[in-house]
Amino acid sequence: MMSCICRKLLLGINVVMLLVGCNSSDGQLRNEPAPYGPTPSEAQLNWHELEMYCLIHFTPTTFQNKEWGFGDAPADLFNPRHFDANQIAETAKSAGFKGLISVAKHHDGYCLWPTKTTDYNISKSPWREGKGDMVKEFMEASRKQGMQFGVYCSAWDRNHPEYGNEQYAEAYREQLRELYSNYGQLFTSWHDGANGGDGYYGGANETRRIDRSTYYGWEDKTWPITREMQPTAVIFSDIGPDVRWVGNEKGVAPETSWATFTPVGPDGGKAAPGYIDERFLGSGQRDGKYWIPAECDVPHRPGWFYHADQDHQVKTPDQLFELYLKSVGRGAAFNLGLAPNTDGLLHPNDVASLKGFGEKLTKTFAENRAAGAKFEASNVRDSHMKHFGPANILDDDRYSYWATDDEVTSPELVIELKEETVFDLIRLRENIKLGQRLDSVWVDVWENDAWKPLASATSIGANRLIHLEAPIAASKLRLRLFAPVAVALSDFGLFKEADVEFTIAEAERERIDRSTWNIIANGLEGGDPALAVDGNKETFWLTAEVDLPQQVTVDMGNVQPLSGFDYLPRQDKSAVGLVSRYVFETSTDGNTWEVMTKGEFSNIVANPIIQYIDFEKQVQARYFRFTVEAVANAQSNRSVVSIAEFEVYRD
Ligand code: FUL
Fold first, then answer.
1. Are residues 115 and 174 in the same domain?
2. Tens digits of residue pLDDT in 170-222
3. Residue 609: which residues within 8 A CB-CB, separation 6 or more?
4. What is the torsional sign of CA 345, 348, 352, 354?
5. How far is CA 191 from CA 177, 180, 242, 331, 545, in A?
6. In this structure, are 357 and 383 located in the same domain?
7. Final residue of a domain: which of 345, 364, 383?
8. Using a 6 Å cutoff on CB, does residue 200 contact ligand 1?
9. What backbone torsions phi and psi does residue 136 show, to the nearest 5 degrees?
10. Residue 154 Cα to ligand 1 middle (Å)
11. In 60-190, where does DSSP find H-type helix?
């Protein structure tokens, strides 16, 4: 809109306006309100406009049916015979996603591109006869769909023999240099805070701890490389510096989520990825020193990697839509994890759900039902010029806006709709180039000759979607806005959530009846074990502090065919006592035991979902015993253990 005005002016239609309204050199409006607080960089503006993108997890870990590879999978295990980056990119595009991030290296250390920094990479795979570059294929497929591209290169590397010393830290930086050199312009460089722990480490098979605040030299050595080589990329990590983690892997930002934030370490000092006071990750801080908006990451399936037994647990279009409202609709970004299967394709259930979600988004937002409305503002900045008039909030331009005079900080806007209109979604946006200015907005509806409060919201910023509990029909609305400075509202929209058809068959496991169980604590002492088998996800068995490993033994009362077990971690958001390493054994007589499975519940702190563990074969057993070898985040082997639910199943 501004450029259009400037064009007219340059044609000499209104020379006076040129002098008063437009700055001839850059087309900016004169007398703009001064920015308030921190403002976004160009790279952050691009990221805000993207709103939603996908993160693709695909490494040998997929072929091991794990969530975190240990770093010991043979490099040639990775052989997705039907891999098709276009199928994945097209599907993401059909769902409305505007970017793709390739997990170029996950914690297992396997590089999907032919790096010079380690042998543990795609050139050692039979895929494309060792000549392939999967990061490149993802990049090209993204470009083909008109999507932007980014990379995630895990700093934690459970394969690298030098992990923990300076040689690896330098190799990691070299990996970033390679990724920044060969895959065009990136919109993000994604980093996570999972750092250090047990791993293969070139065969050492040990636990390595690093000092998260110093080891990677993020600020002095690593991020300067990003800034220099990929100036248009936002750097994501739990602390920012450009985009912060929202603090959960559920894809949800809180109702109030400010784009401004001051990262602080858990000790009140300097923060680093994986080393942060997490309290304000979700909400941000109204008086935060930096512009660091939140990103909401969440996998499409329960886990980030593909597991065949989760084929029926793909999030539905309605669930994805809800996540969209609770992320993009709260000024954050929606980062959805996609998990190709061992063929190298998205499963048909994933494809169907994503298409359905895309259809739902398109139908819902096809038409702004406020179009054609008339406005009456209690104040308009420089009202004689009309540049800051309320019509700007309907022009679909995020940066043209209705502004008030500096001294008017709580204006009102009456909106007369073209006709009586049904809606259940209200969209509000600010021109964030001028900062996050609004404290709150109230929406009233004209009903029976009086104003009635309908909804309210805080932290408007780049995008705010208010979802009403039920659709409403209205012909006149009023906005009441509150800010410490002049307001700069750039958008107002009314929409109605559309319905789409979607069904996938439920796969039910046949669970073994728990009423006959006799639980013998057998080392896991204290607390109430009955809470782990009471069918209530909210309650949990919390043991006393014990020296791990410890066991619990169950006598089921009779011999049963068993094919797997599941462990539900506590669901109250506390990470205390979450089991991270286990052994599961069965027995027919309580004397002779056979190990059915053992391993790790990876990523259980950030994503505390139910853990299904299938045995390789079905087995007859009357007894089973579960050994807790380690719990997550424990500083020593002495800890409490928590179990919300524990079951065994037949199929
Ligand atoms: C986390 C990782 O530990 C998970 O495995 C996953 O990659 C997620 C996106 O980030 O920090």
1. yes
2. 999 999 999 999 999 999 999 998 788 999 999 999 999 999 999 999 999 99
3. 302, 303, 569
4. negative
5. 14, 14, 11, 21, 34
6. no
7. 364
8. no
9. -65, -45
10. 9
11. 60-63, 85-94, 134-144, 166-182
Q: Hunting for tokens 């806007």 — which residue is that?
A: 413
> What percent of the chain stands above pLDDT 70?
95
Per-residue confidence (pLDDT) for residue 382, from 0 to 100? 93
CATH number at residue 638: 2.60.120.260
What one-character-per-residue DSSP string does 277-306 give? -GGGTTT--TT-SEE--EEEEEESSSSSS-
- Report residue 51: phi and psi, to 5°: 65, -45
User: Tokens standing for 440?
Assistant: 């709150």
- Tell me, using a 6 A CB cutoff, whether residue 606 lines ligand 1: yes
- Please indicate, yes or no, if residue 137 is contained in any of the structural domains: yes
Where do we find the tokens 């990724």?
179
366 Cα to the center of ligand 1, angstroms: 34
DSSP per-residue letters across 29-82: BTTPPPP-S----HHHHHHHHH-EEEEE--SHHHHTT-SS--S-S-GGG---TT
Is 194 near ligand 1, meaning CB less than 6 Å away? Answer: yes
Residue 9 lies in a domain: no
If asked whether residues 263 and 287 sit together in one domain, one would say yes
Distances (CA, A) of 307 to 66, 184, 337, 486: 8, 32, 13, 52
What per-residue confidence (pLDDT) applies to 23? 37
- Counting from 1 in the atom list of ligand 1, the atom nearest the Cα of 305 is 5
Domain with 515, as residue range(s), is 510-650
In this structure, are 476 and 520 located in the same domain? no
Domain-embedded: residue 456: yes
The one-character DSSP state at 523 is B
CA 26 to chain centre: 36
158/106 Cα distance (integer angstroms): 9
Query: How far is the centre of ligand 1, averaged over its atoms, from the C-alpha of 603 (Å)?
Result: 7
For residues 406 and 360, membership in a common domain is answered with: no
388 and 248 inside one domain: no
Collapsed DSSP state (helix, strand, coil) of residue 473: strand
In short, whether 645's Cβ falls inside 6 Å of ligand 1 is no
Whether residues 295 and 391 share a domain: the answer is: no
293-351 pLDDT, tens per residue? 999 999 999 999 999 999 999 999 999 999 999 999 999 999 999 999 999 999 999 99
pLDDT at residue 196, as a whole number: 81
Place of tokens 């739902």: 360
Radius of gyration of the chain (CA): 27
Q: Look up residue 468 and give its two tokens.
A: 């009403």
User: Is the residue at 14 inside a domain?
Assistant: no
Residues in the chain with pLDDT values less than 70: 1-29, 505-508
Here the tokens at position 562 are: 């068993």
Structural domains in the chain (count): 3
Would you mind telling me the total number of residues written for the chain in this entry?
A: 651
CB-CB contact of 549 with 585 (8 Å): no
Q: How many CA atoms lie within 13 A of 403 on its CB side?
A: 27
